Amino acid sequence: MVLEIKEIDETRAPLLDHLIELRARLMRSVLALAIGFGVCLYFADTILGFLIQPLKDAFPEGEGQLIFTKLPELFFVDLKVALFAGFMVSFPIIANQLWAFVAPGLYAKEKKAFLPFLIATPVLFLGGASLAYFVVMPTAFRFFLGFGGIAGGLNVEALPAAGEYLNLVMQFILAFGMTFLLPVLLMLLHRAGIVSRAQLAGARRYVIVGVVALAAIVTPPDPGSQLILAVPLLLLFEGSLLLMRFQEGKLDKVEGEGEASDEESDLTGSVEPGE
Q1: Contact in structure between 179 and 214 (CB atoms under 8 Å)
Q2: pLDDT value at position 269?
Q3: Which pTM value belongs to this model?
Q4: Number of H helices, E strands in the chain
Q5: At a CB cut-off of 8 Å and minimum separation 6, what does 237 contact?
Q6: In whole angstroms, how far apart are CA 262 and each of 269, 270, 271?
Q7: Which of 3, 10, 80, 115 ranks highest by number of CB atoms within 10 Å?
Q8: Alpha-carbon gap, residue 8 to 91, rounded angstroms
Q9: Amino acid 192: pLDDT
Q10: What is the C-alpha separation between 185 and 121, in angstroms, rounded?
Q11: Element containing residue 14 per DSSP (H, E)
């Protein structure tokens, strides 16, 4: 009985150490988010002006306005803008804390395997968000504003509310940023042995249907933005297949060299010294 208690005590200490380290890293992440939120709240008007620019460009010169229909709406818009921008600014620190917690439990080969994915994740997310901001949102906003005009002798014009517009912008940026992480997900599944390149290539037609359906769900109901999201995702999917082929070829080469060295060592070991 004493031995059992001793074994529990021995396994409890490392677990407590891990929990203490996890708490410390979570506190650092929350602190980084809080600092980022505070700084971005100070510049909330500037950040909101940057997010409004695609809508401003979609309106004719000198026209267009952004309204708020509830008294506290603009205040909560500033808070959302600060929280959204603060998370973007503090994400590198949060990701670094997460990696620092997980990395000690990985072998050197596993660290080298995960490092490209850690680098590719923010790059792909930024690429998707940039595509949404510079290409998709101006195109979609011009499409929506094109429905204004005269109806029944009355002037029909767009008066977007600040809160609704911010939600739409965040939907665009997050949708495009997250969906652009498709290659990272596929490469991780391939590296883990869950899926193979042949399986993905054989399911290409289903992937196309799924990508089109995903684009229809995460984007507003206009064909332009859906097409702009679907085409890059399909290109990223095909690019992932090419990377998988390169990765498989590299692994086959390493395995071939390993088998050749084993055969050479067996032949060397089979020869007697006197011969």
Answers
A1: yes
A2: 55
A3: 0.77
A4: 10, 2
A5: 182, 183, 186, 200, 207, 211
A6: 10, 12, 15
A7: 80
A8: 37
A9: 75
A10: 10
A11: helix 2-42
